[in-house]
Amino acid sequence: MITKIKKRDGREVPFNIEKIANAIFKAACAAGGRDYAPAFSLAEKVVEYIETILAKKVPAVEEIQDVVEKVLIENGHARTAKAFILYRAERTRIREMNTRLMKIYEDLTFQEAKDNDLKRENANIDGDTAMGTMLKYGSEGAKRFYEMFVLKPEHALAHKEGDIHIHDMDFLTLTTTCCQIDLVKLFKNGFSTGHGFLREPNDIHSYAALACIAIQSNQNDQHGGQSIPNFDYGMAAGVAKTYVKLYRQNLIKALHLLGDVENAAEKVSAVGDVIKERHGLLPALGDLDDYQKYEAGLMIDLVKDESIVRRSQAFAAESAAAETDRNTYQAMEAFVHNLNTMHSRAGAQIPFSSINYGLDTSPEGRLAIKNLLLATEAGLGSGETPIFPIHIFRVKDEVNYNPGEPNYDLFKLACRVSAKRLFPNFSFLDAPFNLKYYQPGRPETEVAYMGCRTRVVGNVHDPSREIIFGRGNLSFTTINLPRIALKSNKDIISFFEELDRIIYLIIDQLLERFAIQARKKVKNYPFLMGQGIWMDSERLGWEDEVGGVLKHGTLSMGFIGLAECLKALTGQHHGESGQAQQLGLKIIGHMRQRVDEASRQHQMNFTLLATPAEGIAGRFVKMDRRLYGSLEGVTDREYYTNSFHIPVYYEISAFDKIRLEVPYHELTNAGHITYVELDGDPLQNLAAFEKIVRAMKEAGIGYGSINHPVDRDPVCGFTGIIGDECPSCGRQEGQVKFERIRRITGYLVGTLERFNDAKKAEERDRIKHFSAKCRGASGG
């Protein structure tokens, strides 16, 4: 007689036949049954079988469940047996997930970041800190919950097995990815962060400080990065207000010093108010002639001495210009310092921040960007290279690209700063797929990029609003292209059939995720929606759902490993073979066609993204190596190549790399980037650096950057290229490590210790082949 059973953990507990009967009854109910009596009778047969056939006095739980399945089938209860089997499989899956989660928590708790890939998954989070670890606890727990209880089983399975990667799955039900923040609109009349109202800023210091606060506040409402697409236009108003204030202060000072004018402050204020009311003029950094003409006439009537007025005006203009320049530099310096020290997300992370600039030709906008670049060039307090914000300098014919154009000097300065600090990156508004949206005089049509490469401008949902302000990506999911190629075994027809299956699976998954996002309310996004950052959100009430306005955003399908995919299909990647290049363009073109079809069908912005791959570059290849073994050029490295890039280990000139990658930029309308690697110090050859930027522009690249080593000795402060020994002080690298800044997916990160294993391997290959890759870029 059975009196005990053995649990999975080895414990023996009292046996209860009713538990077997209840399990059978639940399965029967799932199959349409309603009578408990047959369930108890079947439970008795289970006990009889265990006692007589198995001759077990203390059966294990799994043995009892095996017998339940057998008894149900043998007694004609096939539907009930199927329901029981499914229930049992689901319970097993949940137990395994819980066990796996506990092992993850154990590793997060007791391992350092250098020994734990999860702690290094995001290079912008210090996994060794309390808040960094806590963020990973929540992240990993949320992922397991969504995988078990929220995602459709087919979506969860595809993600788990490595056919796809659902990005930021820990935020699946919570929020969206990123947004392009219109500073001009936000600052107009002030805004609230939820803990008090901030009035409209009145000088450049306040403008810079509030820009940081806006980025930080919006970062707390989203899981991705924050971009300011109109940084130069946004800061220009702050420069102008600063100049007006300083001009008047210096005019008052001059009137006192030169003429001992009584009540000078009241007179200057009164004259300024009259000019503004009558003529709409204020002192400006540019042309002061009209303002000072009217000002002189009124001031002479009050002061009775034209010479004092004219000399005071000249002093005020010269002093205000110099002081405004100095104040603007200090404000931009503080802006850069703040974005590298302030935190979001419970203190676990510096905000992912990007700024776009370069097209504002006003004296105020130009002054802001000049000083921003100079502050970035100077570095942080001890000369460190700033990691944030990501700078994107917009290059445009007739604005800044050619000698004699208004902002050409800023373009030259941008090249110099990038040659030292890796930023700015460069976007090219004359690329046909960017130029088609551009309307002179309308900054909202000047295509902007997020630092990682994301681009949001086209709008199938509302074609009359193809602008960049107040929009962003909602979510994205990446296809493992090498997996599909390996599955197809070089059969191109089979490849495209499987590719289509995965594409339609992702479209369904993105729509499912959007349905969850759409049910959120304004109150769930107190800054993003509550302060009208997102397009049209100002029309909604606190309890209104946001689905209608979210449709202005994008749902993106990404891809990784085109090079390895082509290698698996043809034996060569697109850097090695023109035939492979044509097939690569066919594959990515096919994907773009499918997302365009989905956009028309659903009247939503489905887009194709050249995925910014971090952890998944290693995740995918490890899974595929287990399935298919180590295959040369496909699974024999620790990473798959990022999106459509030519592999970092392949020897190719900078200009050939640009030529081969440029066609993919137009196809990837959700975002793209092309990197070029330099082996030496580009500050020693700025002409070569600029030559590459110009090559990108002339080829039709949308967004590009130039990588080069940026190392620093924290002991002596030397910044440049450092091998095993500092070239300045001769110090060998010992316990005090040299700082080595490298670019990952558009962002900069610190030393290799912060990289996951796949990115470490990629960086080693990149360094190994620096010279060979870029020999075409040398020489002037």
Could you describe the 3D structure shown?
The strands form five sheets. This protein has a seven-stranded mixed β-sheet with strand order 4-7-8-9-10-15-14. Strands 3-11-12-13 form a four-stranded mixed β-sheet. The chain has a four-stranded antiparallel β-sheet with strand order 17-16-18-19, with no helix packed on it. Helix 3 (61-74) packs antiparallel against helix 4 (78-110), helix 4 (78-110) packs antiparallel against helix 5 and helix 14 (408-421) crosses helix 23. The chain has 780 residues and is of the alpha/beta class. The chain is built from 25 helices and 19 strands.
State Rg. Answer: 32 Å
What oligomeric state do the depicted chains represent? single chain
Straight-line distance between termini: 91 Å
Number of strand elements: 19
Structural class: alpha/beta
The portion of residues assigned to helices is: 40-55%
Order of strands in the sheet with the most strands?
4-7-8-9-10-15-14
Strand fraction band? 5-15%
Give the rounded overall mean pLDDT.
Answer: 91
Tally of separate helices:
25
For the biggest sheet, the summary is: 7 strands, mixed
**What are the low-pLDDT stretches, counting only 5+ consecutive residues below 50?**
770-780
Overall geometry comes to elongated
